[in-house]
Structure formats: C-alpha cells, structure tokens
Task: structure prediction
Amino acid sequence: MLPDDVQVVSVDDHVIEHARVWLDRLPARDADAAPRVVEGEGGRQMWKYEDRLLPTIGLNAVAGKDPRDFGVEPVRFDEMLPGCYDPVARVKDMDVDGVHAQMCFPSFPGFAGSTFLAAQDRALAGACVRAWNDFILDEWCAAAPGRFIPMVILPFWDVDASVAEIQRVAAKGAKAISFTESPHGIGLPSYHSGHWDPMLAAAQDAELPLCLHFGSGGVPAFAPDAPFAVAIALFATNAQFATVDLLLSPVFHAFPRLRVALSEGGIGWMPYVLERIDYVWERHRWYTGINTEVRPSDLFAGHIFGCFIEDAAGLALRDLIGVRSIMFESDYPHSDSNFPASREKLAGALASVPDDDARRIAEDNARELFRFFRTP
Amino acid sequence: MLPDDVQVVSVDDHVIEHARVWLDRLPARDADAAPRVVEGEGGRQMWKYEDRLLPTIGLNAVAGKDPRDFGVEPVRFDEMLPGCYDPVARVKDMDVDGVHAQMCFPSFPGFAGSTFLAAQDRALAGACVRAWNDFILDEWCAAAPGRFIPMVILPFWDVDASVAEIQRVAAKGAKAISFTESPHGIGLPSYHSGHWDPMLAAAQDAELPLCLHFGSGGVPAFAPDAPFAVAIALFATNAQFATVDLLLSPVFHAFPRLRVALSEGGIGWMPYVLERIDYVWERHRWYTGINTEVRPSDLFAGHIFGCFIEDAAGLALRDLIGVRSIMFESDYPHSDSNFPASREKLAGALASVPDDDARRIAEDNARELFRFFRTP
Result:
C-alpha cells in the first residue's frame, strides 16, 4: 500500500496561462500580435494571437466541477478555480488533493508549443516560446519551490534554435522538455529522419527527458459524426504509436541516455504492445531495416516511462511493464483528474501493491527521471 | 491446460485465390476485365483487374518459411505451399498444425472486399463479389465439410445489394461476414450515420456476425520513412478504434443481437481499453450525445469478440476481458502464423489456464459465435 510518508509526485498537469503571460514579457511593439485575452461574444473570453482567435476549451478547466456540468464550450477565468492560473492557489489545491508536486504542461501554446509552430511571424513565435519558458520557470515554479517540476517548450520548427533554448533553460533549472509524440503527425520530419539529432543530443547532454503528451501529435482520426468521447477514449493509441515508432527508430541507439515520458495515456496497454513489438521484431527484423540486435522490450526499459491516473490492468501486470517505468499523474485541472481525491484514489489503486513498488510509482520514479530530488 | 479432445477452431486465416476463381464463374464477356493472373517482370505473377495491376504481397504467403526469408516482394504460386490456394492441401497442413477448423479471409479482394469498392464497373464488381462468395462456399469450404467456417464479403458500396447478398449467402450456409473495421477510414459513412442500418439488420436477422479484420479500415498512419514493421506492430490500434467507435455508437443499441469479431489484433489491450472507455463514459456521457444508460464494458460482453495467436498479457487478465469473448486464430499462411506448431504453441499459452476456460477459448466460443457446431 501507499506509505504515509510518500510525497506524491504527478507528472502530468496543466497550467492555464493568465492573461498577461506574454504581455508582461514581450516588448511593447509586439503587444498587438502577441497572445492576449479578448472578450468574445456571449461574455466569453478568447485568446487572440496575430490574427487568430483561439478559444479556451472548457474541458481543460473543469477541476472541482460535476461531470454533468462538463462541456467543450469556452470558459471565463472567473468561472475557473483560481488554482488553474494562480500558482499559490494551485499549491493549496494540491495540498487538498494530496499531491506534493506537479509537472504542468502549457494550455494556450498546445501541449508541445504547436500553436507557435503555426504562427506567421517566426521571430515573434520564438520570443513567445522563450516568454512561456521564463513564465513557467521564473513565475509559476518559483512561486513554490519544490512543488513544481519545471518543464519547457521548444521553438521546434528550428532545430538550432531549439538546441540554444535547451541550453538556456537547462542553465535556469528546467528539468523536462515537452515535445510532440508524433512529429510527422503534425507535418514535421519523423523520428526516423535524423532531422532532430542535434536537438536530441542537446536534450541528452542536458539530461532533460522529452515528455510526449497525448494529443501533441494529433487527434485520433475519429469519424466527423462520431461523438468526441470516441477521440477521448482513443488518445492512448497515440502513446502506442509513439512507443512503437521510437523503439523501431534509430533514436535510442543513437542517444542511449535520452529518456522519454509518455504523458497521459495510461499503462494498461503496455504489456500487450511490448509483447507485440517483440513478436514483430522476431519475424520482421531481417528485411525492414530495423535494428536486429536489441529486442524492443529491452530498449523500452530505462528509455520510455508511462503514467496513469487509475489503471487496474496496468497495475495488475506491472511486472511485465517494469515497476521502474511507471509514474502517477493527477491531470489537474482536466476532466480526467480525480481532484480533490487524487491521493485517496491512488492509495486505493495501490492497496494491494507492495510498499516498495508503491513508493517507486507514486514518488521515486518521477524524482529520479526528472532529477527532481527532495530538498533536505 | 488444453484438453486433448479439443478441436482447435481458428477464426482468422487466409485463402490465396487460385488464378481461375473469377474466370470460372463470370460470363466470357467479362474475361478481359475480371480479375485474372498475368505474368509480370522478373518472373513475377500479378493480378490484373480492369486496368489495374495488383501485386500479391509475399508476406501473405510465407507459411513454412524462415523469417530470414520473409519479404514484401510478390511471389509466384509455385513458390507458395499448395495449402495457400488448394483446400485439400490446406486441410493436410491444418492436420499437421493441429488446427481442426479455419475461417479464411479473402486475399486479392482485400480483407473485406475493398478491392471491388475501388472498381470502375460496379456491376462487374458486384458479380465479382458474388463469384468470390460462390467460390468460398461451393469450392473451398465444400472441399472439406466441417473444416472451414464459411465467411463471405459484401458489395458494400450498395446497402440494398448487400442486404440481398446476405440473404442469398445465408441460404447457402454462410456463417460470417467480413466487413470493414472503419467504414469512414475508407471513405464511407461511419457507424454513427445510420447508413448501414438495413445491412446490420439483415446480418442480425441472418445471425451472421461481422468479422472486422485489422487493416480493413486502413493502415496505421506511420511516417513514410518509418520501417513497415512500425505499421505491423500497430495494427491492433485499428481494432481498438473499432471497439471504441462501435461501443460509443448506436449500433448495438439498435441491433442488440448483432455480434462483431475483431479478426487479428490480439486481446492484451482489451482490459485497458474497457477500463478507459468506462472512465470516459462516466465523465463525458452527459454532453457528448452517447448512450447514458449502458456502461460500455457491459455492452462489450456478448457483442464484441477478440482472438489471439500468442498473448500472455490478455490471457493473464482474461477475467477482465471475459473468457467468453476470447477466441484463437492461426493466421495461416501469413507472417504471424506459428504453422506448423499452432496447436503446440496454443497449448503452451494455455498451460496454466483451467481446462474449461481453455476449451472455451480454443473451440467452444468460436463454434457458438459462428453457429459452427461439431457434426455428430
């Protein structure tokens, strides 16, 4: 079971950026193009960036609501819990929730910053990326030292600029990078192309794991007339894609110290996928140009890490996954979150798991992967 | 363990059509447009249909080969085991393999007949579908009664014609229909559209389960420069799509006696997907227009069936899937097959499974689903 002294570390949560994140950090001349909040129709608040209006999605700020009140409509800041956008209020909610530390993904920029990938002005977009990183490091995480794992985004349309940004933020204390689970899924060169090698080398050198949030490589291709619940239930197929794609690519052979966290997407599919990829490797390695020496499931261990909220299947087969590959996420303030009962639900899920394994899963694995150690 | 008296029934195998399947059955006037085998470059044999040249894929006829000799290049009939295209030779191979009965999917037509969907002459395409069905019923299955579960394809670009074909083949002894796992994935109306209702009603009335072979709704969207092994390892994500798509559609509410078999794709992902879809249903059923009364995992039981070749994860968690939902496949003569050791490998996989469960999985579930009972 979960020992009382475990500090639960969650590796997938979300910050809702307050309205002045970019206005506070960019030069005044960019104020008309930088991301800023405008009042829309019907009392709604929207983000405006260059000429694009980008709605907030209500589902991304539902912490504390009853599921009967969930919806995809935009919400106003004053309709959210302050913990969505205020780090001091967030820490209070974490205390209620029994979660000691969180790692927060961007909202307006997209999980991996792809909002900026679609920008007209790439110079401004690069400045926006750096501004978000300064916000998360200097404002959000700095408000509560030891309570947030600092994660950054990259100007990933430019590999050299991404290398420079990795070096800049590593020096400022960043511990992780949010990257896309499927570069080719969003129109960029694949993990097989070699295109990303300088960036992957820089991440490896800086000891910053790549965090691949589900949805960062696209939405599962559900039918246009299907309910959106179909896509929500299928997002873990993206994580399966990323796992197979990476394990059959040259990435971990070229960068053996690089590590990847699959952020949201569960763990219950992992035993099947590892068994399947080994089966395919056994039979198809001779003619497909993949590495013929290292069994993919051996490559998985120590390179790819997953996380869960509730996942009876994955916990039951945790030894097939590897207990050291499993972490916890609380997903605050998204619709999957168990806030304000995250620790209580986690303790229930771990009730029949030996204490040492429970401690690894709830705290130690995340602290070791992100080099985010307890302060004495 | 697997009792000696169990007759292993496989629910996913493949016939390689011999060169005269269509020429033998279509009027002579269609001989220049109907599917026929032509000699290609380098001694290869190809199918020609209308003006299209369609290569056979070597991987589809590798039974008996060493994986070091696998490849995607076309093969000649005289390079295959005769069991690929000759039902008498097939039964001999099944006897060696320890498999009492098989259900054989089409090869040239595509798993669900989509080669004919792309035809210029729809009247000829309809005749080609009926000819394949007559071939499989009157020639292939008739060559060895009790050894093949008769499965047919439909002219599914035309719902009324599909209804008529279901009624025609049901009267001739068909026991299953091969349909696409993702109609919208191949450019047709989705399972949510109502478009298929007359066909689904006819299948339900005729007690013919729909068999959705992985790949029948498209190939996983791997990067163009990724090895094909990535797609091979990911095909089960198609089966996950079909499961979620169907369970969150009106299909089983409208047709409660309709049953669906997922053909190839394993079972180890099912515990995760069922847990996930229930989780999503609990939180998102109120605003997404899905059924709010029936838990998706309850709808799964008795409506959706899976099969496996080797699947330690799925067998370990078989009680989370439901033992009555699990069947075996031998996948002869494709690259996943364990021929000539299918029964031996299956017995090994079931070694720690109680006899009653092993019997259900290896024989009884398939016999009951397809109403393919032992002959006295």
Summary: Chain A is about 35% helix and 10% strand. The CA atoms of residues 193 and 249 of chain A lie 9 Å apart. Chain A has a mean pLDDT of 95. The longest helix of chain A spans residues 122-140.
